[in-house]
Amino acid sequence: MRFRAEVLRDEFKELGIEVVSHPTNFFDTLTIDCAKSFNTTSDYVLSEFHKRDINLRKVDDKIVGISINETTTIDDLADLIEIFAFLKGRSEDVGSYL
Questions:
Q1: How sure is the predictor about 1, in pLDDT bands with cuts at 50, 70 and 90?
Q2: Radius of gyration in angstroms for the set of CA atoms belonging to the chain, rounded to a whole number
Q3: What gap in Å lies between CA 69 and CA 80, rounded to an integer?
Q4: 24 near 36, Cβ under 8 Å?
Q5: Which residue, among 73, 71, 17, 70, has the nearest Cα to 45 in the 3D structure?
Q6: CA geometry: angle at 55 spanning 75 and 50, to 5°?
Q7: CB of 77 within 8 A of CB of 9?
Q8: Using CA atoms, how far apart are residues 74 and 43, in angstroms rounded to an integer?
Q9: CA distance linking residue 34 with residue 36, whole number of Å
Q10: What is the pTM of this model?
Q11: Contact yes or no for 36/18 (Cβ under 8 A)
Q12: For the chain, what are the domain ranges?
């Protein structure tokens, strides 16, 4: 699980997404600052993921959490990265970044 979370963290860094989790002291959960990363609220980010049947955790009005578990696949990680890349404006449509 830690490896998958590290993959996400590294991809988010590459995309310019603000990860507010401790940079080395985490296991299976990352938190993202939506205000700094996308200039929007956590509710907007959550709604974009809900459109694709993916649940993230709302921490507060600016922060969302992503938890990885033993059933999380590489395809699941790719879906997360694709949606965040779309929100960041790095792809024209979900599925065209990776």
A1: confident
A2: 12
A3: 14
A4: no
A5: 17
A6: 95
A7: no
A8: 26
A9: 6
A10: 0.87
A11: yes
A12: 2-87
Pairing mode, strands 57-58 and 63-67:
antiparallel
State in words which class domain 2-87 has.
alpha beta
Are 66 and 32 spatial neighbours (Cβ–Cβ below 8 Å)? Answer: yes
Place of tokens 């990885």: 68
Distance CA 27, CA 33 (A): 18
Q: 57 - beta bridge partners? A: 65
Backbone angles phi, psi at 78, to 5 degrees: -60, -40
> Identity (one letter) of the amino acid at 42?
S
The rounded mean pLDDT for the chain is 90
- Report the run of H or E that residue 65 belongs to, with start and end: strand 63-67
